[in-house]
Amino acid sequence: MKNLILKNYKNVLYVVVGIGLVYLMVLIFTPKPEMSELDKYKLDQLNKDINEIKNNQIKLDSTITRYEKEISKIDSTIATVRNQKTIIKEYYKEKGEQINGMKPSQIDSLFHKRYNY
Question: pTM to 2 decimals?
Fold first, then answer.
């Protein structure tokens, strides 16, 4: 085999150089994809739109955070009102039970004191 390559080294060299030239020609003459100006413009517009959407999202997030704080304040107010409602309900329940045990003259004097009539 070594003997064959030494005898035909010129032919082997021609084949290797020929394959190299064909590869270089294909590489050089193959068109490379390029972006047109319209595609570049569209990409720029999309990038601008994406940035605008991101900015709007940041604004919406801050607004949502502010509303969540207001909602928590309102929830605490509602809880306080419910607690006070329960206290008032118990107070008037006790007063109603007191009235059930009173005589008519005592009821009349109680309403007279309460409503000043």
Answer: 0.49
Structural domain including 94 reads 86-117
Residue 73 covered by a domain: no
Cα distances (Å, whole numbers) of residue 34 to 24, 29, 38, 42? 20, 14, 11, 14
Q: Is residue 8 part of a domain?
A: yes
Helix locations, the chain, DSSP H: 2-7, 9-29, 37-100, 104-115
Q: Give me 19's structure tokens.
A: 């394959």
Q: What is the pLDDT of residues 72-93, one digit of tens each?
A: 999 999 999 999 999 999 988 8
- Note the Cα 82 to chain centre separation in Å: 33
